[in-house]
Amino acid sequence: MKEEKEYVLGIDIGGTYTKLGLVNRNGDILANSFFDTQAQSSFSIFQKKIEKEISNLKSKLQKEQQLLAIGIGAPNANFNTGKMEHPPNFKWGDYVPITDSINRILDLPLTITNDANAAALGEMHFGMAKGMKDFVVLTLGTGLGSGLVSHGALITGANGMAGELGHVNVFPNGRQCNCGLKGCLETYASVTGIRRTVFELISEMNIESPLKKLSFKELSGQKISEAALNGDVIALKAFEYTGKILGSKMADTAAHLDPEAFILTGGLSNAGKILLDPIISSMEENLFNAYKKKIKVLISSSPSSNAVLGPAALAWQSLDSN
Amino acid sequence: MKEEKEYVLGIDIGGTYTKLGLVNRNGDILANSFFDTQAQSSFSIFQKKIEKEISNLKSKLQKEQQLLAIGIGAPNANFNTGKMEHPPNFKWGDYVPITDSINRILDLPLTITNDANAAALGEMHFGMAKGMKDFVVLTLGTGLGSGLVSHGALITGANGMAGELGHVNVFPNGRQCNCGLKGCLETYASVTGIRRTVFELISEMNIESPLKKLSFKELSGQKISEAALNGDVIALKAFEYTGKILGSKMADTAAHLDPEAFILTGGLSNAGKILLDPIISSMEENLFNAYKKKIKVLISSSPSSNAVLGPAALAWQSLDSN
Lengths: 322, 322
What we know:
By secondary structure, the first copy, chain A, is α/β, with parallel strands linked by helices. Chain A contains 8 helices and 12 strands. The first copy, chain A, is globular. At the A-B interface, helix 6 of A face helix 6 of B.
């Protein structure tokens, strides 16, 4: 019974929304809330908003319920320094002191990592990676994020910035990436990547497609998925190309980590089998013998409303390791 | 003083020689020996030889000196199963039961891993990676082996076969690799790889070079290094090409692990600066922002006679974690 009295606060800071939740050791959410991050406004506005939300959530705790720790997932968050470093799409500065800022509101043990790392811990504690010790989570959204787990622990690296698989190279001098490099994996294997691929295919192929009616801004991952399900050749080819590239790079990641599974999450993963089939076939083709037919490729079943579970798992794991 | 009374037995099984040594916790070698592995003969011949060598070494221990454990480094050794799996250049079968075989001779706690993983532990306990928690060792010999360390522990993977960076892909449909895949990193960045590169350059360029007098069998890494040091254009270009490819793939590995350092060892690393300069320049060019100028690239200073230190470190680490 004691377990049900103990909670951690999970905070997921996204480019659009910030989500908070009180989560117990079993992954049950006692209470949660969210607010508009306003990443384009000043950081002090965010600070005021989150202070209010934290205070609201704390008031939901009964007397016998105890808040033990805080876990935060945020873009480009550095596990070691507690700062968001050069977060793209945020106007909060180059080094955002998230840890200090939250600890001023609530003085509890606090652990922070990037959103994809937090997602990996969420899968391990409460999701599809339960019982796994070695696996990789890929978040296929606007960009491509990744969380790598070995021996049941996140790989965090010497500078707290490990797991940036979105920036392994696919083609030297390939597509321009936001990060300044060219040919990064996330310029191909992400929602933005597949939109670029559709435009490339339209430019190369001379066939009809409903996607030709859409501007780049209008073209969503959802619309490409729908077109593919309706048999549109361009959309199908786009998924095939995306899966082929991602699968070959997953084979390279396997040669590093020998994972039990890759777990895919984020907008692009909603496409399901149309994406999964070319990924698996390309990965198997490129896998070193020792790994062939041994690695599962799964699509996460955790609903996106549970974005706070990852950060909460981070907090629980950090409590357990101390 | 107690420490000096405690030893482990380190065994390095190579394609040519097998080396054994009694090693204390400080990395001091009390006694060592080696013998011809005879990888092309039957496994039972090896068993008889190593039984004799182990018995000889044990007789060197004083009464108050105690042997605590065994560590083995061997090609394609599986950390989990204790077997060498499909070792190339060995005619001992597809699954060689090394652990069982050695434990029949000496019933002590035994840990086994592939030679490059053992080398990584040797560097961490007794070599250039002392004090490091996150780093990568690359052994550039006949092939390319690797040992990956995160949080001070070897990454071993779900099947005990992590760290096969020799088989990440450089070019789809590139050079044929022994493993059956095409374009693997070790077909470019290894002693064999640079020999292939020299032959490719000779076929493409129409200039004089002392290397043109040598057959593929005669062309050693040493001879390419010597030619490069004498200003031979083909040899210099071969090192540049090798370094460029290896450096770009090290940038991809950095995007996985955010390592403090890469430590290079094995025959090709003897070339020193001629190899190091193009590696560093290519790696930096391809590194994601978060890692630029933060990663050391070092050439191991451990003499090759100390091949038993890696396996010994494995034994010590395994004792400490139990």
